[in-house]
């Protein structure tokens, strides 16, 4: 794998939300994600116990690349694309 500037931020902790109820079940399985519904929500989300850096490394090995990143409150959001 190539060098990623995201590796400079090891203080981020899991669990990490990796998808919603419409996400590819095969990809969620590869990531080791489990589906859960938070009390009060009427939708499901996929989570892994890995840190965001670990998830991004796994996705990079599958051909995904970070396109953009932003912060929303205390949440970090990465947008990825696979060629």
UniProtKB/TrEMBL annotation:
Keywords attached to this entry: Cytoplasm, Membrane, Nucleus
Gene Ontology cellular component list: cytosol; nuclear membrane
Localization of this protein: Cytoplasm, Cytosol; Nucleus membrane
SUPFAM superfamilies with a match to the protein in the record: GTP cyclohydrolase I feedback regulatory protein, GFRP
Region feature Disordered, mapped onto this chain: 1-21
Family, similarity comment: Belongs to the GFRP family.
Organism annotation: Chloebia gouldiae
InterPro entries in UniProt: GFRP_sf (IPR036717), GTP_CycHdrlase_I_reg (IPR009112)
Keyword Nucleus: yes
Record PANTHER family: GTP CYCLOHYDROLASE 1 FEEDBACK REGULATORY PROTEIN
Name of the featured protein: GTP cyclohydrolase 1 feedback regulatory protein
MF annotations from Gene Ontology: GTP cyclohydrolase binding
GO BP annotation list: negative regulation of biosynthetic process
């Amino acid at each position: 794998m190539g060098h990623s500037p995201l590796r400079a931020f090891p203080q981020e902790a899991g669990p990490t939300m990796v998808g919603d109820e419409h996400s590819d079940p095969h990809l969620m399985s590869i990531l080791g994600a489990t589906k859960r519904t938070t009390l009060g929500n009427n939708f499901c989300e996929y989570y892994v116990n890995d840190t965001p850096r670990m998830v991004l490394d796994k996705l990079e090995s599958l051909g995904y690349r970070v396109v953009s990143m932003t912060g929303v409150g205390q949440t970090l959001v990465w947008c990825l694309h696979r060629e």
